[in-house]
Amino acid sequence: MRTSATITRPPTPVAIRMRRLVSLALVHAVLIGGAVFMLLPFVFMLTSAIKPPGEIFEATFRLWPRQFYGWQNFESALSTAPLLRFLLNGLIVCGGILVVQLLVAIPCAYALAKLKFPGRPILFSLVLLGLCIPVQAPSLPLYIAFAELGILNTYLSMMMPFFLSVFAIFLFRQFFKSYPDEIIQAARLDGVGEFEIVWRIVVPSAWPAIAAFSIFSVVAHWNDLYWPLIVVSDTKLATPPLGMMYFADSELGSNYGALAAGATIITAPLVIAFLIARRHFIAGITMTGIK
Amino acid sequence: MAGLTLRGIRKTFGDTAVLNDIDLDIADGEFLTLVGPSGCGKSTLLRIIAGLESQDSGSVSIGGTSVDHLRPHERRIAMVFQNYALYPHMSVFDNIALPLTMTRLNLFERLPLMRHLSLRRRRIMNEIAREVRAVAEQLRIESFFHRRPGQLSGGQRQRVALGRAMVRHPQAFLMDEPLSNLDAKLRVHMRGELTELHARLGATMIYVTHDQIEAMTMSDRLAVMDHGDILQLGTPADVYERPATTAVAQFIGSPAINLFQARVGPGGQVELLGRTLPIEVRNAPTPELTVGVRPEAMRIGGGPCAVTCRFRRRENLGSECILHFDLVASPEVAVLCRVDNGIPIPEGEVPLAFEPRDCHVFDNNGRRIEVESRNAAGRDLRRASEVR
């Protein structure tokens, strides 16, 4: 009896606060550990970009170099490799892919979500099936087809395989599914055609989903090395990772400081874009039907 | 404005029949309510009229011409939805203006950037703005023209939805439970506004609701629906005073009508719980009958028409109260009695009396049977319906 009485005695306010503090500290320790683990390579890149060659391979790691060598590294990176050209190529390829992906996937997703037509379940299962196919699987037939068409070594050849994104169709379909039918019906009664319903009525409410997908798409294709490596051999068309690969071999090969500076330049646009769009991105991920 | 005609409308979803052969004529300028429990097919019927759903067979005509082949907006009717269905990303002004911009501007003039190139567009937009203002003034919504629907209260959104419907000058208004998302007080207020709006516009309105009070207070006529059939079509007074079936009698009137099992005695007299009532039926198809008496027609006390009941509880409605009883003869039958609040609460077993002319008699299929009632003195024999 006595022991049970001591167990059920309510904890003091101090004990409650202590317990909360400890659990908070634990959670944050785990999160900080994960963040450090993921950010460390990035920090290593940034510090290497401002270190003179001699300091990069020193046994002791220093966040800030004894001798600031940033200007020289960035200058040699920019002068030996056409980095701005690579950035432009990346912009063209990623922008082109994203625009066509949205133009194709949004009407498809709307049809799958809101229109009734025979064969819709089959089409949707095909979309789901498409999600399971990795890009490497059809790369050989695509390469041969592009070679036959004579469009290897063009922007188009880098973009075309990604124009139809089943992931985008799936994501937007889940999002549109929750869009109220009555608003679409009201629009039909008001004389809005189906295409205009998509672009004027539904899409303006889908910005979070579009932002989330855009980030996924741009990150994936900005960082993609595999496909550009297959279809492009002209350095003038190289996307940032492909360009870096070319120059890591030849001119900049031994200059790790300049290489890190180049890597910093080509990752910067993505990081900045993400920081700007962060709020939309997170809202989009939590709002889409994938829960 | 125009009248509507429905002929032989049928609709099934899979194996379930939603509408069975609906015929309905709606006069020009009439306020007709489709009322019934949820799932009775009233909303489907409304959506078939709007063209949002297609009927399996039958035809819809508006103003004398068939509209079966027309798409929703070509039917020139407006609809107000239960959840208002306003375009969430557009301002109130744009919401109301959209039906007009869609019909009056061409595709080129509606494109986001191109539209600034058109001179015609500016002239038309001015015209549209004038018409939107005129509608907004009637509904007193000009003050929040630039807000979005999300920033408005339920009643304001409802007005905007009405404005979007009115601005097109449609041939008819279809309303799908437009008041059921509002709180009770606002609902009563909007009921009045809608009735006044109907009187002012003289528009044909078809109104769907499951709320019998809305149906009774607002309509010129109401159609009581259940299981895909129109059970009764008539004025509110007609439906209340002469319900065509037990289902109508139970649905219209609050609290619900009291129903008693009865039978036809020799000579056509109605026998209720061993007591012969001074009413007679002719041509009853079966000896079993159902007698219905509305709670407001019952009073405590004896008489030629009375049932003995045991008091259970009292519900206070303020000005009056509802007394709940059990029938002594069969305690599973609840009997309700609506009386003034002043009368003393009965105790134990009491007789509840009603007038013969307040009896509604139905056959065992639930269909109404016309009765002949003798008044208390037994002198006069008149048809119950003519007494009123």
UniProtKB/TrEMBL annotation, chain A:
Residue span(s) of domain ABC transmembrane type-1: 87-277
SUPFAM superfamilies in the cross-refs: MetI-like
CC per GO annotation: plasma membrane
Protein's membrane topology: Multi-pass membrane protein
Top-level taxon of the source organism: Bacteria
Alphabetical list of Pfam families matching this protein: BPD_transp_1
Main location class: membrane
Subcellular location as annotated: Cell inner membrane; Cell membrane
Transmembrane segments: 21-44, 86-110, 122-146, 158-176, 197-222, 256-277
Entry keyword set: Cell inner membrane, Cell membrane, Membrane, Sugar transport, Transmembrane, Transmembrane helix, Transport
Keyword field contains Transmembrane helix: yes
Swiss-Prot/TrEMBL GO biological process terms: transmembrane transport
Subunit-structure text: The complex is composed of two ATP-binding proteins (UgpC), two transmembrane proteins (UgpA and UgpE) and a solute-binding protein (UgpB).
Function: Part of the ABC transporter complex UgpBAEC involved in sn-glycerol-3-phosphate (G3P) import. Probably responsible for the translocation of the substrate across the membrane.
Family assignment from sequence similarity: Belongs to the binding-protein-dependent transport system permease family.
Protein name: sn-glycerol-3-phosphate transport system permease protein UgpE
TrEMBL record, chain B:
Chief site of localization: membrane
GO CC term (a single one): ATP-binding cassette (ABC) transporter complex, substrate-binding subunit-containing
UniProt source species: Bradyrhizobium shewense
Family statement drawn from the similarity comment of this UniProt entry: Belongs to the ABC transporter superfamily.
Record GO biological process: carbohydrate transport
Name of the featured protein: Carbohydrate ABC transporter ATP-binding protein, CUT1 family (TC 3.A.1.1.-)
A GO term, aspect molecular function: ATP binding
Membrane is among the record's keywords: no
Keyword ATP-binding: yes
